[in-house]
Structure formats: structure tokens, C-alpha cells
Amino acid sequence: MELLAEYGLFLAKIATVVVAIAIVVTLIVNVAQRKKQHKGELRVTNLSEEYKEMQEEVAVAFLEPHEQKAWHKEQKKKRKQEAKEAKARAKRGERAAPGKSKVYVLDFKGSMDAHEVGSLREEVTAVLAVAKPQDEVLVRLESPGGVVHGYGLAASQLQRLRERNIPLTVAVDKVAASGGYMMACVANKIVAAPFAILGSIGVVAQIPNFNRLLKRNDIDIELHTAGQYKRTLTLLGENTDEGREKFREDLNETHQLFKAFVHEMRPSLDIDAVATGEHWYGIQAKEKGLVDEVSTSDDLLLTLMKQHDVVSIRFAQRKKLMDRFTGSAAKSAEGVLLRLWQRGQKPLL
């Protein structure tokens, strides 16, 4: 028994040391993260070069083994010569000749709360810092909409490009509805896949009320407010006709703002005809004037690569350790909520 007691004490000491080390390591990591000024990093990828490499890789695959060997040898020699010439130009103080104009590609896959706007803000700022007058921006957009203030801010980020006279194209392969379309309509040109979903220029809100259930169980709810319309509809209290009317007024006001914004961005639209809350597929959306061209983003990129250098700009946010564990569960829950909503509702703002 004495031996077991000593062994248990030894294990307890070891566990204490391990826990202490873990705490120290965690503190060091947290301090290091706090010292970093940025909450993420900007990733730049040359999509034109990637496509060119893919072309070459496929072409070489059809060559005979001895031909492949000769091709790789020639490419190695060519790259070595190019590097030598670049080094010589640098020594002479010569600047490289200006290349093709650039197309900066941003990706926005929006959630209901539009939290991705944080990354979009950084990406737009990065583009504005380097873009030349001849450059363009392509946003590959996918979103069924969400909260008004979130998507309003996202649309405002794209407006920064438009205000600087940088040609902006939005490509929609799957869905840009409601808040998603609020973003898309900022573009000078909207391109949509044939069966992409667009439109849903409307506002929707629903709220459950448990007041009758609480009354049946003799549970009272007290709600105190300062301001006549501080609360219109509630989850637990008894809703009034006056509160319902005010709630509907607020929805209508938001809808009018939405319509005015879309009409300002695309004045040729018959706004009253398309702002019914309905959504349309790409081909139908073109007939309605909601989009300018029917095509996939892939074909659009291939066309742009013929005359431009196409570069992807992506701001990757650093996640805290706890967020890495909880983020996946939150994303799954959001997906379930969105699917349940969309079974009976159109994409929402």
C-alpha cells in the first residue's frame, strides 16, 4: 500500500508538471498572437501562371518519355536564361517593362451574418493600394443573403472600388439573392451561370411567440421599456396590434431603402417589377435586366486571361484556438438553420 501511495504521488507530480508546462506554452502563444498587429495575412496567387502551368502539364503528358525529358531540359535552360537577364537588368538599374493590365479576383461566400465582410474590407483595401487605372476587379460571389446591416456594409466595400473608377465585375455561379444581390448590383457588370439564383429583392422577418404557452403554465413576463417603440414584437411577452403594425412599417421602410439602392446602381431596371421578393434563374434574370451576361466564372476567367494577368487576392483571418474547435459546429448549425428557413422561404435579406 505504501508503494502504491508513493506511485500515486509520483504520478500526481508528473501531471502537475505537464499541466504547468501546458499553461506556460498557452500563455506564450497568446502573448505572441497579441503582439501581431494584424489578425490575418494577405495571400496573393497568380491564377494566370497556375493556368499556364496546368496547360503545360497536360500538354507534356501526351509526349513520349524522351520528348518529355527534352522539354523539361529546355524549360530549365529557358528559366535560367530569364533569371540571368533579370539579374543583369537589376545591376544596370533598369526597371522591368510594364506587363499586362491586371484583374484582381476576390471571393465572397457570405453567411447569414455576413461576417466575411471583415476579410472583404482588407482585400478591397489591398487592391486600392496597388491598382492602376487600366486594372479591373472580379468578385466571385455566392450568398443567399442575411442581416441588413452586414450586407449593407459588404455592398459599401464594393462601392469603394466603383467610386475609384475601377471596373468591377461580379460573377455568380450559384446564388446571389437578397443581400447577395445587394452586393452584386454594385458592379458595372454582372455575369451569372444559367441556373444561378438571383433577385429576391425583399425583406423578411419572423419571430416565434411563447406567451400563450407561458400563461398556461402560470408564468408571468414583465417587459419594461423607455420609448414607445423600443420593442415592437417580443418572444415571450404579449404582442399588440400596434406593435405588429409598427414592425410591418419598419420592414416596408427597409424594403424601400433596398429598392432605392438597387435602382441607383442599375437605373435601367424596372425596379417595381423585380422588387417583389421573387428570385429568378440566370437566363430569366438576364431577360429581367438583373444580370448582363450568362456565363460561368470559369469561362469568364479564361477570357480575361487572354489580355490580362489574373491575380487572386485573399485575406485569411487567423483563428483563435477556441474558434478552431467551435467554428465547425457553428458553421454546421448555421447550415441547418438556413436550410430550414429556405424550405418555406425565399432567400432572405
Automatic annotation (TrEMBL):
Residue intervals of the Peptidase S49 domain: 161-310
Gene3D superfamilies in the record: 2-enoyl-CoA Hydratase, Chain A, domain 1, 6.20.330.10
Keywords in alphabetical order: Cell membrane, Hydrolase, Membrane, Protease, Serine protease, Transmembrane, Transmembrane helix
Record GO biological process: proteolysis
Biased composition (Basic and acidic residues): 82-96
PANTHER family, sorted: PEPTIDASE S49, PROTEASE SOHB-RELATED
Family stated for the protein in its record: Belongs to the peptidase S49 family.
Protein name: Protease SohB
Taxonomic path: Bacteria, Pseudomonadati, Pseudomonadota, Gammaproteobacteria, Enterobacterales
